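Mods, move this if it's the wrong board.
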Amino acid sequence: MICLALVAALLLRQVRDVVLERPQARSGIMISMLMCPAVLVFSSGYYALARQPGQFTGLHTRVDALCFTVVTPATVGYGDVTPRGQEARLVTVTQVVYTFVFLTAAATALSRRPHSVVAARDRRPPPS
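Not the wrong board. Structure tokens:
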């Protein structure tokens, strides 16, 4: 949880830099890099939960856990992996909310940059 909180704080900082249009912001790279630890934390959590009886059906390997982590926010369905236990379902819901909040904020921030560049270009007078 501490790792997720740290990643969340760093993501929010990057989003803030983009929203405030700070020129030193390298948000595209940083936001992408910060999503990787979040995926690894959730994947590790799922793998650990799968070792407890009754938490997951079909999650046996680290690759299964990684697949489940990537499929969850993509909402394409699981099929072979299902959270059965209350802890597994709680972590899954946490991931969905976490991903929704932070990916939405990141995507919004990243899409603002091209819009502001185009708007600035449109405001410039045409060359003589």
